[in-house]
Amino acid sequence: MQHFKSHLHDEAGTAALGAALSRAITPGMAIYLHGDLGAGKTALTRALLHAAGHTGNVKSPTYTLSEPYSVKMDGRDINVIHFDLYRMSSPEEFLDAGFREDFNGDNVCIVEWPEKAGSVLPPPDLSVFLAVAGDGRDVELQASSALGLSCLERLKFAPNL
């Protein structure tokens, strides 16, 4: 499966998808979140992190650009780094901050507004497209690497019909 499409009827649907993704992702993945303001990018990330075992607050790192979280995956400590590039003024700012080094085989990098970094970002393993649709969200997940394909194959999510 190279892509997955669904309609999420409400916030609970977004949270359920985040929880399902937390069980399907693996270290080394780069996940890029696309969607307008209010589309649910941070809500999806928050649900993923809480399902992965993070018990604290999860907020969008709009001003700090990145926020690391330590969680356990398969009994191993993993850093999930949440990026929000909305306020970034240029792709060079991403490079100057040294963020590219975070994209390695050990971390999971989740990036909101990846288009702000342009071509300096490594290619994603999984792209998530969120769009407001009525009271809910339309979501599409697209795999673009072996890691992304493996994630979609492990994804066990039944949309809230």
UniProtKB/TrEMBL annotation:
It is found in: Cytoplasm. InterPro entries: P-loop_NTPase (IPR027417), T6A_TsaE (IPR003442). GO terms for biological process: tRNA threonylcarbamoyladenosine modification. GO terms for molecular function: ATP binding; metal ion binding; transferase activity. Signal peptide: none annotated. One of its GO terms (cellular component) is cytoplasm. Keywords: ATP-binding, Cytoplasm, Magnesium, Metal-binding, Nucleotide-binding, Transferase, tRNA processing. It holds the Pfam family TsaE. Gene3D superfamilies: P-loop containing nucleotide triphosphate hydrolases (3.40.50.300). Belongs to the TsaE family. This is tRNA threonylcarbamoyladenosine biosynthesis protein TsaE. It comes from Pseudoduganella rivuli. The gene is tsaE.
